[in-house]
């Protein structure tokens, strides 16, 4: 029995290859995700262990504005220099050094842009404390006067900077110019640690520019007298300094930082896992289809075996053995490819983040186990149904013409309808918001069940739709024959189209949601942003981009400019809740440019200690003009603020506005980050934009854009997300193509005699190919149409549910949907190539004699 | 245009010294040994012979379904030998009709659509009068809208006959047309074939091993071991059977004699 199974397995290599490919893809993405995250994890571990190799203990002040309480993402508070002495006095401490080590020193390169562009690697600004075990000068000397800096070799190389050169540096303050007097490197001949850039100033300059005040540090580096007492000293420091400080050993810090970075990069893993999920979902249909086809093809053979006394169990077993073999082979191939993907991903991440040394490739046990379960498990599961089909073949089928009539679709349809109701119910419940924390599972579950339901209903839907679609091609005889062929086996057509349907439904659904969100936000922005021109930039470091105040003065002086509202923002704890608060350097101009409308109090002026809030905040917190609220800013102690006005919901300030005076003393940086420009009536926006561009040459991180350009920029993230979704679709389509090829190859095989007759009575080769192509295109178009319908429906349901979350517009991505349908047709043509060639090459004589 | 050539007037298809060799060396099989036959227009010719005699191969070569190793084949005045696949396809479409043992109808089409399929493929308009004549001759008037699965074997073969006839080909090749039918349906189909030769002047070539079927033909050509060995005009079933019996003996002698190269 086993021998017979394996023999028949080998005789259908092509089909098995095709069905295995889906499993290979899925396993590849799954194992790739695991291998990549493992490799990156170990890379970062070693990177930070290295960076903190010479650190015994570090003391940092806890951030003043920090919601999560873990200090991640928030900016640590400054440490008064007196604390250094206190730390040094703790027993076991050999030496305590106050350091300035803050992110956000951006060097302006020769091209007038920030060196390294949008690279995510940190840009440190530090105080020069001389050489140490980790770092040594390669050229020149350390900075001695306030106008001098030393830079690391990595920065020097990237920016092509040499000793003696003048460079501009952006910090908390606007651009300042320094002379490079030294270039330093790190132990082991490294130019940088993980691609970092470092600018070393003299201590007072570093304090002023990086921390915003002199006489303060943000890190105290502690050396212990005895390494073995490390944790003891750490705990002693913790008790001594109290809850306001964070004391960590170098090891703790390395782990924390590595974990941080791993979390940031985990999105790559999620994308890969998403691909794997789609590949699997579509792959299940492909495998199911393949095995159904194999079983259908072997009906006579199976019946013969049954007639000779093989039991039902043996029948099931024979199909399952086949599935297992395919599963295992595909798993191994997929795993190998996945390791390759993981390696490639690690390599790319390392390349993009500077000269990062990638850890050796490793395949974690999880990669083996999960990919095995995914690959082999899914294959076996998908083969179960066909296996039972095989066991139900009656022995008498061996004597009959293999042409068994299709069973009625009633049971399938009823099951599909029930599932559709259940899935939609789950979806509605999930979207109603009553499910609380489980919302996502109700929604995802509902979508999943709905998919299966539609797949079950596909045969029923297929009959009328396929016949209708086919009429498009009925103008030629081969087209008509192709159309009739595609309607011949509704189940097979349906299951083939279902793979297509699912992939297109997924992306259409996601695209519908994205384009609706995009449209909704765009509409809000369009209503809110009343400025003609906006000066803004991309954040490339811990410090937001800055606009040089001198440039702002010049812009204000331009004859075409009516008013300018320049805004700085920072995270502030307002009444214990973190939120972004804006401040304008000219509140009167801001209220005019942004057309702030007071609904309570006044909004066109704002003094120290005063606060403006927007209507929805007022409603949420039940605040009104005249109330006082407590707020903790980045710098300084908590203070009371009086609400002096409420404005109708609009842009600017993130719903809360403080005075410029308070921002100057309390914000981390009071340099304007963006500015809204209103032009005089009749002024030419293009020429004004050009003039402002000239003025902004000393603010390399920002540029000026018109209102519509700016809104477009704000929505860029959706464009990127949509792009990823299209890539996902491509993967899914690839698998769907395999499914269609599979079905068509079988159809050609089954109809060998018919094809032979057609060729004998004069159907040319080209027209034979056209006939197969039409069949293929009809199937794939059916899948695509069903897909966009289901996808748009599910997407619209989700969008409707998000209505009170601000997604008010339902925007169907018509352009994309049309593209998908065209894509579906193209898929049909591509899938038909091999089967059509096979059909056209049939030897007419053999075909007529074919049994 | 066919009428202008004197040879083409009488001859619907002809094979001139046709050889068909399969394989090479040890495994070489000679299916046709320099066969020359002329099939007269308006005649019902049967090709007979024991299995392996090359009768099907000869028919396939004459019909442009198979290529010959040596020699020449003509259908009407058209030389079949050396044509490209496309030209062969068009030749079959325009000049040849087929009736197969397995009926070979398209299950997706109705009887009428099946009958009109060759014309549809060629993009030709059916001649309605002729179509009606054919339909009435085969007696399928009330079955036109049925699909093949709703028809009996005899009816299906009559549809196949109608399909071959309706395009008025130069010659119709029938490969064991009664092989899958019971004797009554077989007799129906055969008399229908004979009638279409007598009444409409259609040329039909039929391969069969059934002496009874061959007795419907005007002429029987006997093949053995790839050669034309005998011929009979206006045969009766008994005469055919008699020749066949003798043929078996001859074939056995031939097979024995083949070792010394005797012909």
Automatic annotation (TrEMBL), chain A:
<dbReference type="InterPro" id="IPR025857">
    <property type="entry name" value="MacB_PCD"/>
</dbReference>
<feature type="transmembrane region" description="Helical">
    <location>
        <begin position="267"/>
        <end position="295"/>
    </location>
</feature>
<dbReference type="InterPro" id="IPR003838">
    <property type="entry name" value="ABC3_permease_C"/>
</dbReference>
<feature type="transmembrane region" description="Helical">
    <location>
        <begin position="409"/>
        <end position="428"/>
    </location>
</feature>
<dbReference type="GO" id="GO:0005886">
    <property type="term" value="C:plasma membrane"/>
</dbReference>
<feature type="domain" description="MacB-like periplasmic core">
    <location>
        <begin position="18"/>
        <end position="239"/>
    </location>
</feature>
<feature type="domain" description="ABC3 transporter permease C-terminal">
    <location>
        <begin position="727"/>
        <end position="843"/>
    </location>
</feature>
<feature type="domain" description="ABC3 transporter permease C-terminal">
    <location>
        <begin position="275"/>
        <end position="395"/>
    </location>
</feature>
<feature type="transmembrane region" description="Helical">
    <location>
        <begin position="366"/>
        <end position="388"/>
    </location>
</feature>
<keyword id="KW-0812">Transmembrane</keyword>
<feature type="transmembrane region" description="Helical">
    <location>
        <begin position="440"/>
        <end position="473"/>
    </location>
</feature>
<keyword id="KW-1133">Transmembrane helix</keyword>
<feature type="transmembrane region" description="Helical">
    <location>
        <begin position="316"/>
        <end position="346"/>
    </location>
</feature>
<feature type="transmembrane region" description="Helical">
    <location>
        <begin position="494"/>
        <end position="514"/>
    </location>
</feature>
<dbReference type="InterPro" id="IPR050250">
    <property type="entry name" value="Macrolide_Exporter_MacB"/>
</dbReference>
<feature type="transmembrane region" description="Helical">
    <location>
        <begin position="814"/>
        <end position="837"/>
    </location>
</feature>
<dbReference type="Pfam" id="PF12704">
    <property type="entry name" value="MacB_PCD"/>
</dbReference>
<feature type="transmembrane region" description="Helical">
    <location>
        <begin position="770"/>
        <end position="794"/>
    </location>
</feature>
<protein>
    <submittedName>
        <fullName>ABC transporter</fullName>
    </submittedName>
</protein>
<feature type="domain" description="MacB-like periplasmic core">
    <location>
        <begin position="493"/>
        <end position="693"/>
    </location>
</feature>
<dbReference type="Pfam" id="PF02687">
    <property type="entry name" value="FtsX"/>
</dbReference>
<keyword id="KW-0472">Membrane</keyword>
<dbReference type="GO" id="GO:0022857">
    <property type="term" value="F:transmembrane transporter activity"/>
</dbReference>
<feature type="transmembrane region" description="Helical">
    <location>
        <begin position="717"/>
        <end position="749"/>
    </location>
</feature>
<keyword id="KW-1003">Cell membrane</keyword>
<comment type="similarity">
    <text>Belongs to the ABC-4 integral membrane protein family.</text>
</comment>
